[in-house]
Amino acid sequence: MPEVTGLRLPARLEGVEPVRAIRTPARLDYQFTAGRATSRFLQGVQRKQLLGQRCPVCAKVYVPPRGACPTDGVPTEEEVELGHTGTVTTFCVVNVQFYGQVMELPYVSALILLDGADLPIMHLIQEVPYDQVHMGMRVEAVWVPDEELAPTLESIRYFRPNGEPDAPWESYKDNV
Amino acid sequence: MAEPTHVLTAPNVIEYPFSRTTGPVIGAFFTALREGFIVGVRGSDGRVLVPPFEYDPLTAAELTEIVEVADEGEVVSWAWVAEPLAGQPLDRPFAWAMIRLDGADTALVHAVDAPGPQAMATGMRVRARWRAEREGHINDIEAFEPLEVVEGGA
After folding, report:
1. What is the distance between the terminal CA atoms of chain A, rounded to a whole angstrom?
2. Nearest chain B residue (CA) to A1
3. What are the b/e assignments for B29-49, b being 16+ CB within 10 Å?
4. Which of B11, B18, B30 is nearest residue A19 as measured by Cβ atoms?
5. Which residue of chain A is at minimal alpha-carbon distance from B5?
6. How far is B32 from chain A (nearest CA, A)?
7. Which of A61, B7, B17, B126 makes a 20 to 30 Å CA pair with B111?
8. Domain spans of chain B, in order of start
């Protein structure tokens, strides 16, 4: 270890290539239980339905629903079917490689406010150059083939521009 | 919401492939493991600390004298693991033990591959069982093995 000054080594370590780093992986094994509200949502996705739930107090529609309103603390029992179109509220162009990455770089991950919802979902934006994605862009869901539909948001492959004019700022300003 | 809902559940694994740099002192410890032996560091009071500390526990001065110790020693304390978890050194019941190696003044934590808690005792002698293929990791020692039969445990 010639780069270390002052370190006195036993003869057996002289001239040996030193270890400079060790593996210290961390792994957490969970069993995720969706709960009733989110289970209904995921089962809807399997039928190509996007189901939110409306709060009886503040009237906000949550998607994916968790079964209660975090603001008012009451059950959200009214089910609302949402459109397959929405508005990009914010987005991120991913340029950095990371462990577990499946998409080709660069790609766009966005928060999308589905029509009829008051909370955006996160999903991919494709079929448009990454540098043309912008806030207010109108997009539509592209689903997997019917035989591949499953109770997961991966049943939507991605969202793509649907050609409509941009949504006005007032329509999504509470979600950025 | 009339019909009952079948609640969905699925495995969810979160995994981080961390690695960490060792620095020269801890690096010497892992380098020695890769080469098939064990080292510690000499403290300001002359004691040999295994695993090595980078800074003296008494004076906080940098420690620089890497010292080789034996790969066998004495169990200082232990705890039996009846149901090993994934990622632990052995996939069958074993003991976690504090092991003071010959030539060392402090104890190293490692697994002891004993047939049962009745085969474990404070003061018992154990020796490292080395892996044939080593990479510079604490698991280069597969486990420690008892060097003597213990009666009754302790």
Report:
1. 53
2. B24
3. bbbbbbbebbbbbbbeeebbb
4. B30
5. A36
6. 7
7. B17
8. 23-146
* DSSP H or E segment with residue B153: none
- Contact by Cβ (8 Å): A110, A90: yes
Q: Which residue has the tokens 């950025």?
A: A176
- Tell me what percent of chain A is helix, strand and coil, each rounded to the nearest 5: 15, 35, 50
Quote the CA–CA distance of A89 and B11 in Å, as a whole number: 31
Q: Are B65 and B50 in contact (CB under 8 A)?
A: no
What letter does residue A21 receive in the DSSP assignment? E
Neighbours of A86 (CB within 10 A): 29
- What would you report as the CA-atom Rg of chain A, rounded to the nearest whole angstrom? 24
Does pLDDT of B134 surpass 90? yes
Q: Do A27 and B25 touch (CB under 8 A)?
A: no
3-state secondary structure of B135: coil
B15-64 tens-digit pLDDT: 888 999 999 999 999 999 999 999 999 999 999 999 999 999 999 999 99
How many A×B Cβ pairs under 8 Å? 123
User: Percentage of residues in chain B with pLDDT exceeding 90?
Assistant: 88
Radius of gyration (C-alpha) of chain B in whole angstroms = 20
- Whole-number average pLDDT of chain A: 93
Give the rounded distance of the alpha carbon of A55 from its chain centre: 23
B75 burial via Cβ count (<10 Å: 0-12, 13-18, 19+): buried
